[in-house]
Specification:
Number of helices: 14
Helix content: 25-40%
Number of strands: 20
Radius of gyration: 22 Å
Largest sheet: 10 strands, mixed
Length: 476
């Protein structure tokens, strides 16, 4: 998110001074690190949590359409940068990887059939295929079928236009573009405080993780893109807009395989149904990952709990975030999500063999010797005030900005990096409203659909999706 915003501002206003403060020793080592997320390039092609079934049995697709729209904006922005030579060879960060949904059981098969019918004619989901035929599904993803009972009802959807995105490589390339164009990037710098001065400037107090003495920076505009730690920093800023917000941290694990023979047999991202009470980020999936030219498989996630707000954070992060103004929302959100608490406890207590059995539901003939455990990134879900319930746990991302637009930060997680471009465009409109008209030609050059919805204009959607696919060298 920070690298995307910084790059956009450099494109829009090259003469502005930009400084990036990074706590770790390199770019994108936290949530954007490729092994700390699934890299799906979330576009709702396969993620079933974006298409819930309504009480009347019909499928709600508005969430899926929104997420797909957002990813198309990100694709446009990346294409603009690639075309101008501001990003390297597209395969360094994005690679074609079919997206699949796979379910078993009569009820789930009926649901997936309805979902396919609801999406297949939408312009943003062109090319979506559906099958209940084991031989067809085996052709799409060979490891899903052998060892499965022939009597078990199964169904799958597939779309070849899916991608695998290395957001770590992408963020690193964006940071390099910024630095090459005058931005100052300081690594190993921890922000300890953010305070508004009487002259209107923000004082950002920092200390070095290694070496030199503490130092201060003064800025007219501040973006807090600190992942889970954004909540604590925004609280320190004292802006009234952050009152009532809390955070619920969720950690996770994946199983990973680098076995070349196994990797060669599975070339897709396959998403299933979430367990009852599980958060959206815990939807099980068996993924192809392409990282720095090497291909691996990843299955998970297995949810866990840590009070840290960052993988590299402190065990006191959660406790330090509690304030009188967010205590009631946090308690209300906790009591209102007891099924989530039960799910997390179950995941923490699960044996290794139980966890591997979850993989075998996707890959019946999978063997433990081919897989090893990795720890995923830390996610902090948004808790906010609610007039009726007192507080709610929100899945998604949310921008919190001061009334005068001088400081803003991003809270939340999924779908995260995939939607960085549209979220940062929205932040620019919020924080720099007096400059939007002057910037509009450049904004449209960066994102041709700026100010429009592709879902409202099939011809425009076709044109833009075809063009970005050509530039990024991925399927249409």
């Amino acid at each position: 998110m920070s690298a995307t915003l910084g790059t956009m501002l450099k494109q829009l206003q090259p003469d502005w001074s930009i400084q990036v403060l990074e706590k770790l020793g390199d770019a994108a080592e936290e949530s954007s690190n490729p092994w700390n997320n699934a890299g799906t390039g979330h576009s709702a092609l396969c993620e079933l949590n974006y298409t819930p079934q309504k009480p009347d049995g019909s499928i709600e697709i508005s969430g899926a359409v929104k997420v797909n729209e957002q990813f198309q904006v990100s694709r446009q922005f990346w294409s603009h940068l690639v075309e101008n030579g501001d990003l390297p060879e597209p395969s360094s960060f994005i690679n074609p990887t079919p997206h699949m949904s796979f379910v078993w059981g009569e009820g789930n098969v009926e649901y997936l059939r309805k979902r396919f019918d609801a999406l297949k004619d939408h312009p943003l989901f062109e090319g979506l295929e559906y099958s209940e035929d084991a031989s067809v599904i085996r052709g799409w993803a060979p490891v899903l079928i052998p060892g499965r009972a022939k009597s078990q009802p199964i169904a799958a959807t597939r779309i070849a236009a899916g991608t695998d995105v290395n957001f770590g490589a992408l963020a690193g390339s964006l940071m390099k573009y910024m630095e090459d164009n005058g931005a100052q990037i300081t690594y190993d710098a921890r922000v300890t405080n953010i305070k508004r001065q009487k002259d209107g400037l923000w004082r950002i107090s920092c200390r070095r993780e290694i070496g030199l003495a503490p130092f201060d920076i003064y800025a007219r505009f501040v973006f807090v893109g600190a992942g889970g730690n954004a909540l604590n920093l925004l609280q320190k800023s004292g802006i009234p807009e952050i009152r009532g917000y809390g955070g619920f941290p969720v950690s996770g694990e994946f199983l990973r395989s680098d076995n070349p023979e196994l990797v060669a047999r599975h070339q897709a991202k396959v998403y299933g149904m979430a367990a009852v009470g599980a958060p959206p980020m815990s939807v099980p999936h068996l993924d192809t990952r392409v990282i720095d030219g090497s291909t691996s498989l990843m299955f998970g996630p297995y949810a866990g709990f840590s009070p840290k707000f960052l993988k590299s954070g402190s065990v006191f992060d959660l406790f330090k975030s509690i304030r009188p103004h967010n205590l009631v929302p946090m308690i209300a959100a906790g009591t209102g999500n007891l099924s989530l608490v039960k799910y997390l406890v179950g995941q923490l207590a699960a044996k290794k063999s139980t966890k591997f059995a979850e993989l075998q539901q996707f890959f019946p003939k999978g063997e433990e010797k081919d897989w090893y455990r990795i720890t995923a990134g830390q996610r902090v879900q948004v808790i906010k005030k609610d007039a009726k319930k007192g507080g709610v746990l929100q899945f998604g991302t949310e921008v919190v900005a001061a009334a005068d637009g001088s400081i803003a930060g991003l809270l939340g997680a999924s779908p995260g990096a995939s939607t960085a471009a549209p979220i940062m465009l929205g932040l620019i409109e919020t924080c720099f409203p007096d400059r939007i008209e002057a910037w509009r030609p450049k904004l449209i050059a960066m994102v041709p659909s700026f100010g429009k919805k592709l879902s409202d204009d099939p011809a425009l959607a076709d044109s833009i999706m075809t063009r970005t696919a050509q530039i990024l060298r991925i399927p249409r």
